[in-house]
Amino acid sequence: MRQAIRRGSAEEEVRKHLDRVTGAWKKISKQRRRVDVSYDPSMVTALQHGTCIDEEGFKKTCIKEKKKRGDIHQPFYSTWVADFMLRQDAGRFMLWKYLSHKKIPWQQRRQLGMAVAGNTPTASFLTKIGKLQSAGCLLCKTAREARGESTDSLADETHGHINCAGCEGMATTITPAHHSIWRHLHDSMHTAQKPKSKLKFFTLDKESNMSRLWRREEFLRIYNKEDLTEKAQDIEVTKSVKKSQEARYNLDFFVNRFWGRRPNGVAINEALKIGYFLA
Fold it and tell me: Is the pTM of this model over 0.85?
């Protein structure tokens, strides 16, 4: 019974994410082309294929076309976690492998199962079922009160929120864990590379910001610093700015933010002039 409930909850979450991706396309298809959809090739392709008659086929076509377009700055589904979980032969396979591993304590597997099903007892979920009045993060509220700051406009306390550095109450715990995981991944990739590999790994002993990395000849041969600054600025201006940083809201701020970034791992292929950054 428990397995059926968990499976049903997980399937419902998958359906919700699929509906979010294809919601706009379904709405337009129902209007039977009375609106101009030429601005979105994905919609045009889906309508031309006639998949709007079959809802499941329409979803598959829309998702396939949207994947072709790609967008590295926004998650394909509603969140990056959903992107990972719904990726073919990746997220769900790894989840099943973890949940079915008998040597992993049941409590840990249960917590992950609750997270996937969306019923972790966070403020967001408790508000949804009427047990709390506000979904605001209690950890962020406590951290702000300790600093004497306003507790207005708190982020919703979701499972994803309290497990990321964006949670003000968990930042000092999550950040070191985050760096430790990426460091282990970076070291494992370096150890596992084949003798013929053209990859050259950097920052194995300690992190370095982008500015220091681009003082090295290897990086300058891959990309000119001035051209990279111009490209980076176009990307940085699309990213959000924290309220504490709004006083520095200008183009110089965006450039400095990019060059001050500290990737968790760096590798380059000088032959192909490609850089790989674990951020």
Answer: no
